[in-house]
Amino acid sequence: MEDEEGTDEVERILRNENFILPFIVLLEVYYVTLREKGEEIADKRYAMLKSLNAEFLWEIDEPTLIMAGKFKGRYRLSLVDAIIAAFAKRKDAILVHKDPEYELLKQEVIQYALPYKESDRDTKKL
């Protein structure tokens, strides 16, 4: 997350734009940080995200669930990515990401792709 290419753009968006944060994003940030950095940093990142001026989406409605199911069934996406993409589409939001998996949905969801990590680019070529 920190010191990656695109960090400045994410900070600009968080300061200046309206944005949504589905519960699943908070979950993913928390568990990935817990694995990589430990519980103390995971707790701090979670608290930082909760302090943002975002529209938090704590529940998934049936139309979003069905859309996520369609994305998961039609494309090679993780379940988390399918749910995030469904929230973006249903809310007419721009999906800001650094994940090459979302390229599969460029006809379905409006996207703003930040620079991918080198390891993600290499994985995509396989």
Describe the structure.
- It is a single chain.
- The protein is mainly alpha-helical and 126 residues long.
- The chain has one domain (7-120): 5'-nuclease (Rossmann fold, 3-Layer(aba) Sandwich), CATH 3.40.50.
- Helices cover 56% and strands 10% of the residues.
- It contains 6 helices and 4 strands.
- It has helices spanning 7-16, 23-37, 39-50, 62-74, 79-90, 118-125; strands at 20-22, 55-57, 95-97, 111-113.
- The strands form 2 sheets. It has a two-stranded parallel sheet.
- It is globular, with a radius of gyration of 15 Å.
- Residues 121-126 have low confidence and may be disordered.
Elements, N to C (H/E): HEHHEHHEEH
Mean pLDDT: 90
**Beginning-to-end CA distance, first to last residue:** 24 Å
Low-confidence stretches: 121-126
Kindly provide the radius of gyration, computed on alpha-carbon positions and rounded to a whole number of angstroms: 15 Å
